[in-house]
Amino acid sequence: MQGAHLVSASFDDYQSLVDAVSLADVVICAIHQILLQLKLVQAIKEAGNVKRFVPSEFGTDPARMEEAMEPGRITFDDKMVVRRAIEEAGIPFTYVAANCFAGYFLGGLCQPGFILPSRERVTLLGDGNQKGIYVDEDDIAAYTLKAIDDPRTLNKTIYVKPPKNVLSQREVVQIWEKYIGKELQKTVLSEQEFLAVMKEQNYAEQVGLTHYYHVCYEGCLASFEVDDDQEATKLYPEVRYTTVEEYLKRYV
């Protein structure tokens, strides 16, 4: 990467973390092991020079998921543990709630376990009418980089909610059907059937399916309004985001 300066550090070597963050004005974390960030929080606090920390979140706002179902709620609970540690340490932060990664949801037409859209059939989760919010991963990165030195986002949560990408599963399927020129055979998976299937999976898969449940059966992402000063597409209108239609066209 042009202009990048790579520094070796390890979560198994605390001093190396302190040395690494001492060289940075902004720290953006994207690891999956959420609680491992507590070491990073301590290192940032000790270094004392970091002007903004963006912890590994980039999904559903955990502060709004207090009633989330087991076992998937562990993700939100762990993120809140990290948030509290950041705030207690007095570290300047920005939390990025980017909703649904397009790569996980759109390629499979919002069906868990699918990464490519079928040209024959689709299973609708419930009535398929709950709204989700789908964001291209490159766009999440672009909005995050815009926010890291913006005083308007200091010590706040920003939401990535592209207005053209607030769609139900049925609407996503309809876009795909338009592209392929045919209607897919549709099967409905009821809430009870989904939960029964989920219980038969291993722990890690249950965690992931719980998130699908809250998005596709409860509509947790679109159940509240976001103020313009916390919504990324309003804060940074110069960033051109990828629409669901544009994203699905890649598979034609």
Automatic annotation (TrEMBL):
Record has Phosphoprotein as a keyword: no
Family according to the record: Belongs to the NmrA-type oxidoreductase family. Isoflavone reductase subfamily.
Top-level lineage group: Eukaryota
GO MF annotations in UniProt: lariciresinol reductase activity; pinoresinol reductase activity
GO BP terms, alphabetized: (+)-pinoresinol catabolic process; (-)-secoisolariciresinol biosynthetic process
Domain NmrA-like stretches: 2-248
Subunit annotation: Dimer.
A matching Pfam family: NmrA
CDD domains: PCBER_SDR_a
Annotated keywords: NADP, Oxidoreductase
Record-listed E.C. numbers: 1.23.1.1, 1.23.1.2
Protein name (Swiss-Prot/TrEMBL): (+)-lariciresinol reductase
